[in-house]
Amino acid sequence: MVTETISDAEFSRIQQVMFERVGVTIGSAKRALVVGRLSRRLRHFNLKSYTEYLKLVERQGSEGEWQVMMDLLTTHETYFFREPKHFEFLNRVIKERSSRRETFRVWSAACSSGEEAYSIAMTLADSAVSLDWQVFASDVSRRMVDESRQGVYPQSRVAKVSPSVLERHFLRGVRSQAGNYLVSADLRKRMEFHQMNLNENIDSEVGHFDFIFLRNVLIYFNAEQKKQIVKRLVAHLKYNGYLLVGHSETLNGVSDAVVATAPSIYQRRSVASSQQVAGMNG
Fold first, then answer.
1. Which residues carry out catalysis?
2. Domain identity same for 61 and 91
3. Whether 37 and 145 share a structural domain
4. For 202-212, how does the pLDDT look when each residue is reduced to its tens digit (9 = 90+)?
5. Number of H helices, E strands in the chain
């Protein structure tokens, strides 16, 4: 018989595994959430305890049940054009930089199921008519990356998208796809989706970006991890580029390489400013 209770030792082991593998800190207040999300996996495998489940996770390794467990414990709420002020700000900056010749690049650094990345792409498509642009999106979950790359969403997930945006950027499914919406090929061809753990070193080939969206992510990490993650991402942010975090998040005490220009919006210091700060600290 499957048990819904989890021992202190089992919960501690899950906390340890999540921290060691992806750097995610699961606080004691999340105990009920862990049970709620993982108990279905115990029922699926007809296991009697979380100890048995953890043994299964270890036995199957990174290509098996570990991915499922990680998805269940890290996937957070997302929807199209979440926190709209960020997209309004992106729109304004695009128009200010409309005369630039280099590709305007934006990184959705924790894209989940893709809504944020495609919201960025739709904003760029509607505003950057004279600019070449690209959206790079990443997530720690391979399943989320695969789902995002497909760009298919049920009607319930696009319910809050305006009819005009649906008309411009989605195809309505028919026959076997009735009730689904597919992001247009014109948008999808400008997108790149990659599995990436922000708690690890980032390949230099990722390049540099005008905007990096890192929203509602840092809440999962401790203070030192936050500093290291932001440091890695800022290294890929162009000078005077912008790093956006969630409206409930702050980078105060996390990084002095960026300065706040508005709540939850930070700008990388220019070369001159960075040199000046370095001289003052020298």
1. 37, 139
2. no
3. no
4. 999 999 999 99
5. 11, 10
